[in-house]
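Morning F.,

Quick status update on the modeling queue. The single chain you submitted on Monday has been processed. Sequence for confirmation:
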Amino acid sequence: MNNLMNFCRVGIIIFLIILFNSGCSVAHSVNTSSTVSLSKELKKEIPAIKKIKYTFTRPNLTINIEMKDVPTEESVNSILANVKQFSTIENINEIAKSVKWKSEIYDINLIIYNHSEEKPAIKYIASYFKTFDASNTSEENIDGYKTWTKYEEPQS
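Structure tokens below.
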């Protein structure tokens, strides 16, 4: 009987740990004055954009841009230029504040796609920190979302 009670206690503790950890990674839709401005600018400049969605999942911001057709190189370059201009520390801190995040947003993920089989999603990333050490807040470790890197799918 004692073993059964201990087993139940351990099971409850494990369940609570899993519940607590999964509750911390909730995705939040983001809608700030800067995201509204970016969306308006992008849709005006690139009519092929179908939908733009901003999502914060701690500690990252993801910008999903769905295109009506397969994105052209010109439209991708234009989107990237606009997103780079938008990605100031001030704008990103405004987003962090809007979702009650009390730290820096580590990464901005930009995903440009359409539901076509011919071309996979195009992904870019920019980071606040230059390294993975978020505890190092020295000036040498701050990139401030200035460097954008295209994510390349591993070749199988």
